[in-house]
Amino acid sequence: MTSAQERKIRQTGCDVRFDNLTRQLYATDASIYQIEPIGVAFPKDAQQASAVIRAAADSGVSVTPRGAGTSLVGNAIGEGLIVEFSRYNRQITDLDLEKRSVRVGAGVVLDQLNDFLKPHGFCFGPDVATSSRATLGGMIANNSSGARCPVYGTTADHVLSLQTVMADGRIETIGPMHESLAAERAGIENLIRARSAEMVERWPPGLIKRWPGYGIERFLRAPNDLTNIFAGSEGTLAAIFSAELKISPLPSKKGLGLIFFSSVDEAMQATVELLDLKPAAIEHIDRPLLDQTKGQLHFQAARDLLELDTQPCESILIVEFYDDVAERLSILQSRKVGLRTKILTEPAQMNLVWSVRKSGLSLLTGCIGPGKPVAFIEDAAVRPAQLPEYVRGLRSIMKPLGLEASYYGHAASGLLHVRPVLDLHSATDLRKFRQVADQTSALVRQFKGSLSAEHGVGIARTEYMRDQLGDELLGVMREIKRMFDPKNIFNPGKIFKVGSALRADRTPQSGVPSRIDNHLRENFTRPLELPFEPVLAFAFKDRSFSGNLEQCNGCGGCLKQTGVMCPTFMATHEEVMSTRGRANIIRAALELRVNGNDPLKSAELDAALSNCLSCKGCTPECPSNVNLALLKADMLYARWRRDGLPIRERIFSNVDLLGKIGCAIAPLANRILNYRPIRLAMEKTIGLSARRSLPHYTSKRFDKWFLRHCRASVSVPKAFGIHRMEPSGGERHGRAAHQGERAGASESNALQKRGPIILWDDTFVRYHEPHIGIAAVKVLEALGFEVSLANNRRCCGRPAFSQGNLDAAAKLGKHNVGLLSSLLDCSSPILFLEPSCWSMFVEDYRELKIENAEKVSARCFLFEKFVDDLLTSAPQMLRFRDLTVLSRQVSAERGKQEDRRVNVAIHPHCHAKSILDPAFMKRLVERLPGHHATLLDTACCGMAGAFGALAEKYDLSVQVAQDLIDKLENQGRETELIASGTSCRHQISDLTNIRPKHMAELLAEALP
Ligand SMILES: Cc1cc2nc3c(=O)[nH]c(=O)nc-3n(C[C@H](O)[C@H](O)[C@H](O)COP(=O)(O)OP(=O)(O)OC[C@H]3O[C@@H](n4cnc5c(N)ncnc54)[C@H](O)[C@@H]3O)c2cc1C
Ligand code: SF4
Ligand code: SF4
C-alpha cells in the first residue's frame, strides 16, 4: 500500500497497525487458508469504525470485519484492511428483563454475555461450540448456531436491531423498529418476491439450520426487517458495531440421555425416532472422535464417566431435554435403543460430556501425522429424516477414494461435521479434496439440503454457490450486494465469485479467493523446511517439531479468558500473546515471512517467543496439544547454537551454582541484593528489574540441616550416593499421646516403617527456603518413611531449559537420571516439592531423550500428590491435629458457639496442573480437621522463573498476575494461601501482603 493511503487510514485516529508482525498474525483464521492483509484496525467506537472504513474505501482498500477469527472456511481473512472488533467493543448494556433484550458490542464474547445474563435467569440461546471466544459480531455475521438449534434456532432469530457501518462510512441502525435504508428494503422485497417460486423449489421446508448466502427466505417472512439480510452476510455487506439481542430464560432443568451404539447407521436411524420427544439437542459423537480423547488428562474424567475403556462403542447420541426432563428421560430409557443408555442430571457430569462434544473439531484435527480431518464439507445439512440416506451417500463418496472421516455433530438438526482425513501437503490428497467437495455439493443438491448450514460460505464454498442457489437466486444476492456495497469493499471474494475491490494501488485485484483450493496455508503448498535439527522428542505427541507446530489449526481455543491457557493473552488480549499467535509467527518465521528473512531471529519471533511463559498450559488445554513450551525451547536452542548463548541466558541457567555461592556468603549476598545502586546496575547490565525483589540466600542450607538431622541415621555407603535416616517416630508418638488424641488408628501407622524415600532438595528449598524442606521431612517421617536426599545431585535443569540452553539442561538431566538409576536402592519413590523441577523429571528429560528418563520418571511424584494418594489408600495412617480446637475453646469460654474453620485457598502451579488434575490438593487440605479448601481457578502467576524478574517483562508479569491477585483479594482476610511453586510464592509476596505457604508447611503444622 502507498504511504498516502496508510497516512489517510492512520489519520482517522483509530488504532491501526501495518507492521509485518500484525499482518502475519491476521493472515489466517481457523481455516486451511492464508491471505496476508495490508493491516489491521482496532476501532474503539462506532465513529472510529466509520472513519477507518470510509478511509479504506476512499483509498480503494477492501475491508474484512473480524471477531475472534474462528471461522472455519476462510471467512475472516482478506487482503485489504482487517477491522477487528473483538479487542475493544466488549460492552454489554441496556439489559431489559421485561422486554427480554440486551445490547452488546460486536466484540462481546458469547460466554461473557451468558455469564452476565445468568444471575438474571437468562441466556443467549444459540450456543456455538466456540462460545469461549466467538464474538457476537462474528456469530451474527455467520448466523451461527449450535447444538440447541431445535429450541433456539440460529443467531438471526435473536437479533432485534443492528448498528452497522456501511461501505461509505455511514452509521445506520436497522431492524423492524427502524426506518433506515427504507428504499433498499423495498427494493430487496421486490427482487425476492419475483423469485419466490424458485425459492420454494430450491429450498423446501424442514431444514432446521441456515441456507448459504443472504437470508432472503427469512426476509420474505419479515420484509420490514433488514437484519435478516445482514445476519449471515459474512461481513460482505456492512460492519456490525453493536446489536440489540433477544435473550431467553434459562431452562428450569436439564437432563441428558446418553445412548451407546455399535454403528453410526443405527445412531442415525435412532435420531429420527427420538425427535418426537422434542429434545433440545441430539448430538452425535463417533469412535474416531472418542479415540482422540485417549490419554488426555483433560478428557479422562469424561472417558471414565462414559465407561469408554470398559464398554467401548462405535457411536453415542447425546440427547438433551429441557424443563420437564424426568418424564422424557424415562420414555427414552424405556425405548431400549442401542447397546446401553446412561442418564445424567448432575450438572458437573453433563458438562463433562459436553466438553468432549464441544472440543470435537479440535480433538479430531489433533490426530498425529500429516493427514488431518479437513473442514470444507463439515457443515452441510439435510432434513433429519434424510440423515441415514445422506450418510450412506457420503460414505459412497469417501470409500472409493479410500478416505476416513468422522461423522459427528448436530444430528437433531440434520447436520454432521464430516471431515475427511486428508494430507493437504500431498498432490494426490489435494485432488481428492476437490473431488469430495464437488461430489458433496452435488449430493447436497440432490437432497435439497444446505451446503453450509452453520459456518458460512467463506472461501471454501464460494465456487459452489451457483450450483447451490442457481443463477436466479445468486443474481438476487448479487443485486443486494450491489445495493449496499457497490464498490465491493466488504470482504470481497466471499459468497460471490467475481468482482472485487481495487487493490491498494487501484488496480483490480486478480487473485480473488473464490476457489476451494486457492490461498491454502503456505505450509500445505510449500512444506516447512526447518533450518535446524530439532533436538526435542515431542514425546507426548507428534514426535516431530513440525508435526506439533502444524497441530495449530487456528481454532482459537487459546483466546479464552478462563483456565490455564494462555495467561499472556488473558492479560493483554493481544493476538501475539496467544498460543495461536505464537504458533502462527513461528510458522511465518520458518516460511521467511518475517522481516530480515532470518528464520531464527527477528523482531516478530522475539515478540512471540520471549513473552511465552513456558507454563505448559497449552499442552493439555489446547485440544490439539500444541506444546509451545517445547517449540520455543527448540527454536531458542537452534538460535543459540548458531549465534552463541548470551551472557544473561548463561547466568539464568546457573541459579543452582549462584545459590551455592550466595549461601556461602549469605549476609553479604543478601545485602548486595538489597542495595539499590547495585540493583540498578544489574538492571542496566543483565536486565534484572530493580523493581523486583530477589530471593534471599539462607545461611542454613537445607541439605546441611538435613545432614545434622541425620545424626541418628544409619550410614549408607557413599557409593550409593544418598544421605539416609531412620524415622524419629518415638518422639512424635510421645507428643501425640500427650495430646490425648487419635486413639487406635494412627498408632498402628505412625511407627510403621514404610521404607526409604528420596526427597529432591531443589535449588530453591536448598538455598532459599529450607523451612519447606524441613516441613516435608517432618511429614514424611510422621508417615514412617526413611527420608534420604540424593547426594551429589545437580540442578534439575529447569532454568537452563527455559532459556533454551538445552545442552546444559541435557547434561544436568543425564547426571541426575544417571545418579538416581545407579543408586543401589533404585526403586524408592522420589518426591518433589517444586512442581517445575518435578515436571523436568516426568516430562522434559524424556523430551531431551535422556536414557532411562522414563524409568526414573515412573518413580517421581509431587510431594503433595504422593501424600494424598497414601492417605487415600490408608486414611488412618496419619491423623492430623485439629488446629481449630483452641479457637473453639476460646469461643466457648466467651460463651459463643463459633465453629472456627480454617479457610485455605490453593493456587496450583501451572506445571502441576498441566500434568495432574489439581483436585487432590483440595482433598489433601481437607484431610486436616476443621479445614476448608478452595481450589483457585488461576493460571500462571506471571513470574515463570526468571521471566518476571526481567526489566522488560516486569509489567507484563504483573499484568498476568492481576487475575490471581484479584482472586486472592476476594478470599477472606484470614484465609491461608497454599502455593507450591517457588515463583508463585515470590510473585504473591511481591504483590500482596500475603505470605503463601507450601503444602508441606501446612501439613507439618498440623502434625500431631
Ligand atoms: C472448533 C470450532 C467449533 C465451531 N463450532 C461452531 C458451532 O458450533 N456453531 C457455529 O455456528 N459455528 C461454529 N464454528 C465457527 C465459528 O466459531 C463461528 O462461526 C463463530 O460464530 C465465529 O465468530 P468469530 O468471532 O470468530 O467470527 P470471525 O471468524 O472473526 O468472523 C466470522 C465472519 O463474520 C464476519 N464478521 C466478524 N465480525 C463482524 C462484524 N463486527 N461485522 C460484520 N462482520 C463481521 C467476518 O468477516 C467473517 O466473515 C466453530 C469453529 C471452530 C474453530
Ligand atoms: S494453539 Fe491450540 S487452541 Fe490455540 S488455536 Fe492453535 S489449535 Fe486452537
Ligand atoms: S506455554 Fe503458557 S504462555 Fe506459552 S503459549 Fe503455552 S499457555 Fe501460553
Small-molecule binders here are: flavin-adenine dinucleotide, iron/sulfur cluster
Mean pLDDT: 92
List the strand order in the largest sheet.
15-12-14-13-17-18-16
Topology, number of strands: 26
Report the end-to-end length measured between terminal Cα atoms.
74 Å
Silhouette: globular
**Main sheet summary:** 7 strands, antiparallel
Unreliable stretches covering 5 or more consecutive residues: 500-508, 714-722, 725-750
Radius of gyration: 31 Å
Q: Which class of secondary structure composition applies to the elements?
A: alpha/beta
The number of helical elements comes to 46
Question: Beta-strand level of the residues, as a percent range?
Answer: 5-15%
Helix content: 40-55%
Could you explain the architecture of this structure?
By secondary structure, this protein is of the alpha/beta class. Helices cover 42% and strands 12% of the residues. The strands form 6 sheets. A 7-stranded antiparallel beta sheet has the order 15-12-14-13-17-18-16, sandwiched between helices. The protein has a 5-stranded antiparallel beta sheet with strand order 5-6-10-8-9. A 5-stranded mixed beta sheet has the order 19-21-20-22-23. The N and C termini lie far apart (74 Å). The protein binds flavin-adenine dinucleotide (FAD) and iron/sulfur cluster (2 copies). One iron/sulfur cluster binds next to helix 23.
